[in-house]
């Protein structure tokens, strides 16, 4: 009997410790910053997944420093890894169309959805990014981490003012 209590306690602890990706998405309470649709299995808004800032933060913040071609000097970015975000919505496609507020769109292939890869940044140098300064969301790669991230193709995928993602079927 004592063993069963420990087993149950361990199971409860393990379930409580699961990342948001394995749990229900929840409902945004703040302004919706990001909408994800297409080939996803987890939704919270009529076939789509919508996120406010708190929901993005709950997925686990990642911070890195890097220089960009659009800013001066080393910048500190904080956000959720693209891989984590797409896992949270159960993305099943091979690419995404990331679209900005002004409808500019880029395709980002599944090979970029890796741990240590790009993040959907919601902070730059510890501050929220206003729309007029590439915010509120910006797909940022850790450019300084690898020469593989210092190509025109990768730079073109670094979309700012991101507000929606469609996962290709």
Automatic annotation (TrEMBL):
A Pfam family recorded for this sequence: Oxidored_molyb
Oxidoreductase molybdopterin-binding domain span: 69-142
Keyword vocabulary terms for this entry: Signal
Signal peptide: 1-22
Name this polypeptide is given: Molybdopterin-dependent oxidoreductase
Organism: Pseudoroseicyclus tamaricis
């Amino acid at each position: 009997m004592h063993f069963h209590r420990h087993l149950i306690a361990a199971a409860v602890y393990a379930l409580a410790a699961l990342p948001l990706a394995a749990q229900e998405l929840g409902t945004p309470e703040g302004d919706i910053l990001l909408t994800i649709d297409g080939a996803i299995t987890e939704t919270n808004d009529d076939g789509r997944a919508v996120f406010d800032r708190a929901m993005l933060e709950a997925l686990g913040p990642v911070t890195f420093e890097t220089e960009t071609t659009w800013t001066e000097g080393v910048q500190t970015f904080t956000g959720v890894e693209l891989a984590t975000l797409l896992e949270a919505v159960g993305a099943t496609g091979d690419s995404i169309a990331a679209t900005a507020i002004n409808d500019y769109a880029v395709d980002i292939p599944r090979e970029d959805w890796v741990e240590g890869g790009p993040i959907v940044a919601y902070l730059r140098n510890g501050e929220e990014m206003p729309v007029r300064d590439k915010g509120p969301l910006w797909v940022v790669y850790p450019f300084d981490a690898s020469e593989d991230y210092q190509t025109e193709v990768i730079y073109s995928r670094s979309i700012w003012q991101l507000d929606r993602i469609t996962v290709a079927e």
